[in-house]
Amino acid sequence: MTSSQPPATYRASFAIGDEQAAKHVVDVLTEIFFEGDAAVAAFERPDGRWDVTLHFADAPDQPLLRELVGNAAGEDVARGMSFDTVEAKDWVKASLDDLVPVPAGRFVVHGQHDRARVPNNKLGIEIEAALAFGTGHHGTTRGCLLLLDHVLKAHRIGRVLDLGTGTGVLAIAAAKALRWKVLASDIDAASVEVARENARLNGVGDLVTVIRASGLGAPDFAQAGPFDLVLANILANPLKQLAGAMSAHLAPRALVILSGLLTSQASGVIAAYRARGLVPVRHLKIEGWSSLLLRSAN
Question: For residue 221, with 0-12 CB atoms within 10 Å meaning exposed, 13-18 middle and 19 or more buried, which class applies?
Fold first, then answer.
């Protein structure tokens, strides 16, 4: 009799100083290992450092792996590596069991298994944890949803853009609340498909248009704009780089919600947008992350 329990996997982990260094070492390790040999991932911590994790189906050669990491990231990083075995477990199911519905103003982000736990007076947004980034459990997503709820209570909103949509959670929230068309974009093809499917599952597939685009140069943005509200939950540096292009697509007195930045990075992002005529209105801080609401002064 065979067991359906997935096999144990082997894990190697280490911390590294910043985003650029993390991306470099992930690129190097991804090129070294053949597809399927190892899964490599990097996650930013609230303190600004990055955790890099590799999962292996078979036990890795630890001295060789330390040497590879040392060549890519330095001996200090390699010495700080840790190795362990991850118990056999259905990690997707476990992650869903651990994710309780997340309230954010009028919105509740939940998985399929929690549909019945959404109050009747709330707007449920169903997102599965296994699909992509943005389940609502991260402080940046929740901050965006809280600011979106605030904006919708205080302002009349027409055209909406969700830039860097990920799972589509923000676009879905706006479409459900407004019952109006929303444009969403992402640079990643897989995220575009995930967001489209999530919009369909949430009953707003006819309202949310998802495109694959880098930046704001595609003609779709000019055709759908100018926007009364832009939602952008990305990262601090891309947000700063997009300030000029984004301001060109804003309607007079437009509102912008920005997140994906550590609280220590907020002042730099605010300065970049202030230079483009946007002034800060609200600043939410959740679990070391910041979410900003800005208003166009034009």
Answer: buried
CA distance 258 to 283: 10
Helices (H), the chain: 19-32, 62-73, 75-79, 91-98, 139-154, 169-178, 189-201, 219-224, 236-241, 243-247, 266-274
CATH superfamily of 9-89: ACT domain (3.30.70.260)
Which fold would CATH assign to domain 93-296? Answer: Rossmann fold (3.40.50)
Beta bridge partners, 161, equal: 183, 230
Asked, as a colleague might, if the bond just before 226 is cis with ω within 30 of 0, I would say yes
3-state secondary structure 127-176: CCCCCCCCCCCCHHHHHHHHHHHHHHHHCCCCCEEEECCCCCHHHHHHHH
pLDDT 10s digits, 134-191: 444 467 888 999 999 999 999 999 999 999 998 899 999 999 999 999 999 998 888 8
Q: Are 75 and 66 in contact (CB under 8 A)?
A: no
Cα 119 to its chain centre, rounded Å, is 25
Rounded Cα gap, residues 81 and 248, in angstroms: 46
